[in-house]
Design a protein that fits this description.
9% helix; 2 domains; elongated; seven-stranded antiparallel beta sheet; Sporulation and spore germination
Length: 289
Amino acid sequence: MTVAISFAVATPAEAETPAEAPQPTSLTATSTISALTAAKQSGQRVGITEATSETAEFFATPDGRIAGVISASPVRYREGDRWVPIDLTLRRDADGTIEPVAHPDGLRISGARSAAFGELASLGEDAKRVAMGWKGALPEPKLEGNKATYVEVLPGVDLVIEATASGFEQFAVVESAEAAARYVKEISLALTGPGVAQASQDRQGRVRIRDEHGRQVADMPTPLMWDAAAENGRGAPIRQRVALDVTAEQVAGDNDLVTLYLKPDQDWLKGAEYPGNDRSPNRPIHGRW
């Protein structure tokens, strides 16, 4: 089974670039008028910095037109007075933690650790920092692009963290029905941070994380699980919602602790409607919650 947990303010679609998008240029100008003038004089496209946003970039062309590159999701973020291209490629820091090359919310992921409990991943800094914990030791993760895989965090269970442009997704990959029965009856995830005080779930199953004033600081899409084989092209995935309980309590200091208890439907995992049970009991299930 693969169970994925997405934790972010938003989970954008993949960026799409028009087929005739202009090529990037090193020439830029603050305003549209100055960019048009510079483009005419240089004979090259000139970027218009005042029109740049997280999802859009515009250029003045030598023939007096404005061309734009529009993306479906954020592809850059503001850092001081400059725009930084988002790069979700994971790398190890000197202290052993993992982080993307360039992430708008400062995502940090745990390296190997022996402690029985600790942070798995965190977003933001200072008062805006939100962290998700994991109960249990962690091996050194395998890094591949924007994914970090902790192999065998439990027998037959891998843990995967995938960096996204607005946060991260968490997957628990359960390789057999036996492992699912033994380890996936309930999964608890602790959320901590100065701005974490409460959480609630709407009718669609989406989770909203709020501070003590009720302001939303993060969210999670509806918890789901699905069939791995179908996801790999052998039919449409059978998706099943995952039940979720939420508790909040005060912990030492000024922080609150919100714990999410995810409860996969054991009848569904063992039942005939899950297509692996009647043919291959070790066929993985995929899920997202």
